[in-house]
Specification:
With 318 residues, the protein is mainly α. The protein is 72% helix and 0% strand. It comes from Suillus discolor.
């Protein structure tokens, strides 16, 4: 018989107790979410994606639940990497969602608030399973490789996540248009790059550089110095400027797709393209602080954003 040392036994009991409390808390949240999946998704988006919550108000009433369910799904997957301590745990969570999407399409949604909300909100829309799986696969790749060597790799990942999410929204609104899809593709890349730029200080605190290596190498960015000191440098600002320029170029390309209509987006598609307004806001703030991503103003909620979103929606421009 193996006798466990008292100190080790005490440590294990403490870990077990913490795990059980976590399980209980998670179970209570899940049960509450299952009772009202739509409210669960709405609260999750409001808490974790203020900009996404703002634009949700622009969707027609019959599509708001669908948007919030899809956005909650997107947030759930985007936060897997930070939520788990081991790659295998992240893989298990993504496997759950891969199976859940099949079950939803087979009218057998699992008892998970987001899955139930997606089933209720999208069962009449026949959304492509391919798009869901593409997002899941891209998030799985993140578990194994958190950084990008090239801009091409980063752009490809953005197309598989942000752009693909916009494709789902166009599908939900029943807007099958190659012009809209092309514009959404570029907007998704711009959205993904600006989001990563703004989140650079957070990732740097975890020892991860989100700017592709080919760009940081070009500008002689000392990554270890950024990680240890947590502040900007001339080289980093140049690298951020280059990546922000790429994001802006994609934004301009998306706008160009609507040249023939005087730059005005079709009214029924404007809720989707309102996602561009936070991108414009972030890029404008970056420019005002000389591309210093550690400037606190980038992390402060812009009080003008709600007004800018509504103005853009009614003008049908971005």
């Amino acid at each position: 018989m193996i006798v466990m040392p008292l100190s080790l036994r005490s440590h294990c009991l403490q870990r077990l107790s913490s795990f059980r409390r976590l399980q209980t808390s998670s179970a209570l949240r899940s049960e509450a979410g299952i009772t009202n999946p739509a409210d669960y998704c709405k609260d999750l988006v409001r808490k974790h994606d203020y900009e996404g919550y703002l634009t949700s108000q622009l969707y027609p009433k019959q599509f708001q639940g669908g948007y919030l369910a899809l956005r909650a799904f997107y947030i759930e997957l985007a936060t897997v990497r930070e939520a788990v301590s081991q790659t295998t745990l992240g893989q298990a969570r993504l496997m759950f969602w891969r199976d859940a999407m099949k079950d939803i399409h087979n009218d057998k949604p699992p008892r998970h608030p987001i899955a139930l909300a997606m089933y209720e909100a999208t069962r009449d829309n026949h959304l492509s399973l391919y798009h869901f799986n593409r997002i899941i696969e891209a998030r799985e790749q993140e578990l194994h490789n958190q950084t990008h060597l090239t801009l091409e790799s980063m752009t490809s990942h953005a197309e598989s996540t942000s752009s693909t999410f916009l494709y789902l929204l166009l599908e939900m609104l029943k807007l099958p248009s190659s012009t809209l899809a092309h514009a959404a593709s570029h907007l998704g890349v711009a959205q993904s790059l600006t989001t990563l730029i703004r989140a650079l200080p957070f990732h740097a605190s975890k020892g991860v550089m989100v700017i592709p290596a080919e760009i940081t190498a070009k500008h002689n960015v000392n990554q270890q110095e950024i990680f240890s000191k947590g502040k900007s440098s001339h080289g980093l600002e140049d690298a951020v400027f280059e990546l922000a320029t790429v994001a802006n170029d994609h934004l301009l390309t998306a706008r160009d797709m609507f040249k023939e209509s005087g730059g005005r987006v079709p009214p029924n598609a404007m809720p989707v393209f309102s996602a561009a307004i936070p991108v414009v806001s972030i890029l404008s703030t970056l420019e005002s602080v000389n591309f210093n991503v550690f400037n606190p103003s980038l992390q402060i909620r812009d009080w003008r954003l709600a007004w800018q979103v509504w103005r853009s929606y009614y003008k049908r421009t971005f």
